[in-house]
């Protein structure tokens, strides 16, 4: 799974905060398409919930013909779906914004990928019989706590438009990499919403409610909203699809190399379509070279691994840049879209190295 490391030296998560626990995947050391549970990034707004017997039931209610109360075994009995999905926190790379923004200062590791198994949310909604006026599906988690900007206690709750909720690949997952989801990643039930940032994939599902209006909870209407202006909310709009993006995993930023051949490696991903083009520059953007893209065996929701053999004979300092384009012709910008809460950073990835 890893190269250049003995069995006794293994990477671990990088800690951003302890309470609540927020930790990054050591993405620069991942050499596999699947991230194991131990290295999957952790994003929390509150302390971990306490599991009780009630956690193993999921109510489906609201604007439905037949409210449901489903036990874990009931979900196991439904036809399941297995999908490989990249999950990325919308705050990934927040620390790279200029000017700086407040919030968890994620570097490049608030992203992971693996295989999820569960029941399509649409299966439950159709069984309950959603009303013709249904507009959104609200998913509430068991995690809760106080917010610094509001009075009172709030649970982590998000909604999906009915179309996204009914998408066959939006699932209620109970397995990750062919094992039960770990407690810290949402056991026993976690929503998985492919191609949307991770805030949509609610953990520790408490209940599902179909509504015929727009949900206005704070994690929907205050957080996870793009605010283009520092001092007002003009032009604000919700965070949804993952932006086209890439990360250089090898070599490391500010690494010292010798002359000769070096393998530059990384990943690229997008929230719509597939990665169509990957370009690399080893001279700070003066010239660009296309990197071979192999997507034949890729599923729609996973990242694309890439590599480029760089031959360097001259000593000195070099800036390496990667930019990618997806099949919807979305290309990484040179400068990211700055927004007050620091979401969706996806500028061309850049590192510096020194050759001696």
Automatic annotation (TrEMBL):
UniProt key word Repressor: no
PANTHER family the record matches: SULFITE OXIDASE, MITOCHONDRIAL, SULFITE REDUCTASE
Residue ranges of every copy of the Moybdenum cofactor oxidoreductase dimerisation domain listed in the record: 237-355
Lineage: superkingdom: Bacteria
Domain Oxidoreductase molybdopterin-binding stretches: 45-217
GO molecular function: heme binding; molybdenum ion binding; molybdopterin cofactor binding; sulfite oxidase activity
Protein name: Sulfite oxidase
SUPFAM superfamilies: E set domains, Oxidoreductase molybdopterin-binding domain
Cited Pfam families: Mo-co_dimer, Oxidored_molyb
């Amino acid at each position: 799974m890893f190269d250049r490391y003995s069995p006794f030296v293994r990477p671990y998560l990088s800690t951003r905060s302890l309470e609540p626990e927020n930790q990054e995947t050591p993405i620069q050391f991942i050499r596999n398409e699947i991230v194991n549970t131990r290295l999957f990034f952790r994003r929390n707004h509150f302390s971990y919930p306490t599991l009780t017997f009630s956690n193993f039931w999921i109510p489906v209610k609201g604007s439905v013909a037949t409210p449901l109360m489903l036990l874990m075994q009931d979900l196991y009995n439904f036809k399941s779906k297995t999908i490989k999905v990249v999950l990325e926190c919308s705050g990934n790379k927040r620390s790279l914004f200029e000017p700086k923004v407040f919030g968890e200062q994620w570097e490049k590791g608030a992203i992971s990928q693996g295989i999820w198994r569960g029941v399509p949310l649409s299966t439950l909604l159709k069984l309950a019989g959603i009303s013709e006026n249904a507009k959104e599906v609200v998913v509430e988690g068991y995690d809760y706590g106080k917010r610094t900007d509001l009075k009172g206690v709030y649970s982590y709750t998000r909604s999906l438009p009915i179309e996204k909720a009914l998408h066959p690949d939006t699932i209620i997952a109970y397995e990750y990499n062919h094992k039960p989801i770990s407690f810290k990643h949402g056991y026993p039930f976690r929503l998985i919403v492919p191609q949307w940032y991770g805030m949509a994939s609610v953990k520790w599902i408490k209940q599902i409610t179909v509504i015929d209006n727009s949900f206005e909870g704070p994690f929907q209407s205050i957080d996870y909203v793009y605010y283009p202006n520092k001092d007002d909310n003009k032009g604000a709009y919700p965070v949804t699809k993952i932006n086209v993006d890439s990360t250089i995993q090898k070599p490391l930023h500010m690494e010292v190399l010798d002359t000769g051949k070096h393998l530059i490696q990384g990943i690229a991903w997008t929230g719509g379509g597939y990665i169509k083009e990957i370009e690399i520059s080893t001279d700070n953007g003066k010239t660009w070279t296309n990197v071979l893209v192999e997507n034949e065996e890729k599923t729609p929701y996973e990242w694309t691994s890439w590599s480029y053999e760089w031959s360097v004979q001259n000593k000195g300092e070099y800036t390496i840049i990667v930019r990618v384009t997806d099949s919807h012709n979305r290309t990484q910008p040179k400068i990211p879209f700055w927004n007050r809460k620091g979401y969706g950073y996806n500028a061309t990835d850049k590192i510096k190295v020194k050759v001696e």
